[in-house]
C-alpha cells in the first residue's frame, strides 16, 4: 500500500488544489491514503532545503508530492511538483480537475482556518496519566517517548503513585521529581504534573497508562555465587514463591476493582486505559473489563507485543540472520499467566537474486543483466531446526536476564507502548497488525468478554479488532486450546467474563 504526502505553503493556491484532489480520492478510493504538510511562507524554504538534503532531491516548486510505499514514514519516492502530480493522477486514476480562482481562495481560507486551530489531529491526546509513577524503573523512558510522539506544548502528563507516604510534602516531592527529570535531560518538566489522588489523575484524562509491579511475591532468594566469586557479587539463581496463585490473583483483582471504581466515578467515557506492567496483565485487563461500566470495553488494552520483541534477537541468533530483517512474532494467550509466542510463523525479509531466462544461455562476458535483486518474505519455520531447542534456550535466556537485572526488562515494554500509541493516534489509520490484549469476540476460539493477547488491527473507528482471517498453524491451534483450558479455572473462580455471557 502507498501513502501519499502533499507538502506546500499555506498561502499557495496550487497546494490548495492538490490537497482538494487528494481529499477527493481518499473519500472515494478505499486504499488511497494521504497526509498533508503545510508550512508558512517563512518556514517553507528552510524546510524544503532540509528535505532536499535528506533525500538528495533538487526541488524548488510548491507544492511537492511524493509517496511512501509499505508504511507511512517509509522511504519517500518522489512524484514531483503540481504538474507531475496531475500527470500521475491522470495516468493512475483518470482524474482531471479545473477549479476557478475564486473557489480555490475559498478552499484556501478553510484550510488556513483549520491550520490555525491546531496542527495536530483531534485524536491526539491532551492529557495522559501514569500510575505508580514513583516505583517503576521505566517511567522516565515512558515520559520521553510520550513527548516524542505528541506535541509537548499542549501535552500534560500527570503522575500518580499510591505508595507515596501520606506525610510526604507533596510540593517538595514534586520539585525533587521534576528536578531528577531535568538533570536526566530526557524530558521537559514543564508538562509534568504530580497529583496526590487517583481521582485527580483520572479527571479530564484522555489516556491512562498503568505501570507498577504486579508480579507474584517471593520469599528470600536462593543465592548462588558459583562462577561469580571473583566478581565480588551475588546473583539470584532462582525464586521461591511465597504467595499462592489464588492469593496473588486476588490481590491483583482487588487493586483493579479499586481502579475500576475510580474510573466509573471520575473518568470520561472516551478514556483509553493501557496496561503495561509485569505480572498478569491480561488478567488485570479482564478484571477492568468486568467492572468498568462507564467506558468502552474496546478502550481497555494490555500491551503484549514486548513478549514478541524480546525473542527476536534469539531467533536471529538461531537462524543466523540480521535482527533488522525480522518482523515481530505473534503473541497468543493470557499474558502474564500463560502465553505462547508463535516463533515458527515469524516473517522475515530476505534479499535474493531472481535470474532472467537468458542467464542460462548468455556468455559470462556478457554485460547484460542476468537477473534482478528482489526482497522476499519467508517464515522462520523453514529455518529452525527444532522448536523445542529454541524454546529451551529462550527460557534459559529469560532466567539469566532476570538474574542479572534483578528486575523485569523494560526496554521492550517501552518500545511496544510507543508503537501502540503511534498507531492508535496516527493521523491515518493503517492496516498494520500487532499483538495486543483486547476484549475477545470469540475469534481464535478464545472465550468472549475476556482479555486475550492476539493479532489485531485498527479499524476505521479506531477500535482494535482481532484479525480473524489470519491462518493458524496446527501448533498454534493446539497451544491456544491448551491456554484456554488452563485459564478457565481462574476465570470461573473470579467470575471473569460473566458480563458478556
From TrEMBL:
Organism this protein belongs to: Zophobas morio
InterPro entries from the UniProt entry: Lactate_DH/Glyco_Ohase_4_C, Malate_DH_type2
Alphabetical UniProt keywords: Oxidoreductase
GO molecular function, one term: malate dehydrogenase activity
One GO term (biological process): malate metabolic process
Record's keyword annotation contains Oxidoreductase: yes
Signal peptide per UniProt: none
The protein, known as: Malate dehydrogenase 1B
SUPFAM superfamilies, alphabetized: LDH C-terminal domain-like (SSF56327)
Amino acid at each position: 500500500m502507498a501513502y501519499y504526502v502533499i507538502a506546500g505553503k499555506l498561502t499557495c493556491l496550487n497546494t490548495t488544489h492538490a490537497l482538494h484532489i487528494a481529499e477527493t480520492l481518499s473519500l472515494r478510493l478505499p486504499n488511497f491514503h494521504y497526509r498533508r504538510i503545510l508550512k508558512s511562507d517563512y518556514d517553507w524554504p528552510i524546510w524544503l532545503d532540509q528535505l532536499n538534503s535528506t533525500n538528495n532531491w533538487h526541488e524548488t516548486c510548491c507544492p511537492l508530492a511524493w509517496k511512501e510505499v509499505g508504511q507511512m514514514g517509509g522511504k519517500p519516492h518522489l512524484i514531483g511538483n503540481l504538474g507531475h502530480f496531475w500527470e500521475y493522477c491522470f495516468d493512475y486514476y483518470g482524474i482531471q480537475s479545473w477549479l476557478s480562482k475564486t473557489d480555490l481562495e475559498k478552499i484556501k481560507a478553510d484550510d488556513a482556518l483549520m491550520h490555525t486551530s491546531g496542527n495536530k489531529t483531534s485524536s491526539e491526546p491532551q492529557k495522559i496519566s501514569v500510575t505508580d509513577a514513583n516505583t517503576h524503573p521505566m517511567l522516565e523512558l515512558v515520559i520521553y517517548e510520550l513527548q516524542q510522539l505528541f506535541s509537548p506544548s499542549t501535552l500534560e502528563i500527570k503522575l500518580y503513585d499510591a505508595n507515596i507516604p501520606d506525610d510526604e510534602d507533596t510540593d517538595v516531592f514534586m520539585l525533587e521529581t521534576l528536578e531528577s527529570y531535568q538533570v536526566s535531560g530526557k524530558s521537559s518538566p514543564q508538562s509534568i504534573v504530580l497529583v496526590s489522588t487517583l481521582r485527580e489523575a483520572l479527571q479530564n484524562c484522555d489516556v491512562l497508562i498503568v505501570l507498577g509491579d504486579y508480579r507474584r511475591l517471593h520469599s528470600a532468594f536462593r543465592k548462588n555465587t558459583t562462577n561469580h566469586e571473583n566478581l565480588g557479587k551475588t546473583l539470584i539463581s532462582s525464586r521461591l514463591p511465597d504467595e499462592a496463585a489464588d492469593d496473588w490473583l486476588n490481590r491483583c483483582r482487588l487493586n483493579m476493582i479499586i481502579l475500576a471504581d475510580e474510573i466509573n466515578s471520575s473518568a470520561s467515557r472516551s478514556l483509553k486505559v493501557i496496561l503495561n506492567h509485569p505480572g498478569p496483565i491480561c488478567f488485570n485487563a479482564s478484571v477492568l473489563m468486568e467492572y468498568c461500566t462507564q467506558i468502552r470495553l474496546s478502550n481497555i488494552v494490555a500491551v503484549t507485543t514486548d513478549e514478541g520483541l524480546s525473542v527476536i534477537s534469539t531467533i536471529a541468533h538461531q537462524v543466523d540472520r540480521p535482527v533488522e530483517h525480522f518482523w515481530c512474532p505473534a503473541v497468543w494467550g493470557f499474558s502474564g499467566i500463560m502465553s505462547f509466542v508463535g516463533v515458527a510463523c515469524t516473517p522475515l525479509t530476505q534479499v535474493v537474486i531472481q535470474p532472467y531466462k537468458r542467464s542460462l544461455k548468455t556468455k559470462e562476458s556478457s554485460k547484460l543483466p542476468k537477473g534482478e535483486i528482489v526482497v522476499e518474505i519467508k517464515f522462520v519455520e523453514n529455518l529452525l531446526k527444532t522448536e523445542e531447542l529454541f524454546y529451551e534456550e529462550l527460557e534459559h535466556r529469560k532466567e539469566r536476564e532476570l538474574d542479572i537485572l534483578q528486575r523485569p526488562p523494560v526496554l521492550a515494554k517501552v518500545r511496544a507502548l510507543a508503537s501502540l500509541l503511534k498507531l492508535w493516534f496516527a493521523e491515518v489509520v493503517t492496516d498494520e497488525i500487532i499483538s495486543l490484549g483486547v476484549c475477545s469476540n470469540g475469534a481464535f476460539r478464545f472465550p468472549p468478554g475476556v482479555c486475550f493477547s492476539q493479532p489485531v488491527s485498527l479499524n476505521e473507528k479506531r477500535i482494535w479488532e482481532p484479525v480473524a482471517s489470519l491462518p493458524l498453524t496446527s501448533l498454534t491451534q493446539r497451544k491456544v486450546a491448551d491456554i484456554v483450558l488452563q485459564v478457565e479455572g481462574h476465570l470461573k473462580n473470579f467470575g471473569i467474563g460473566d458480563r458478556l455471557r
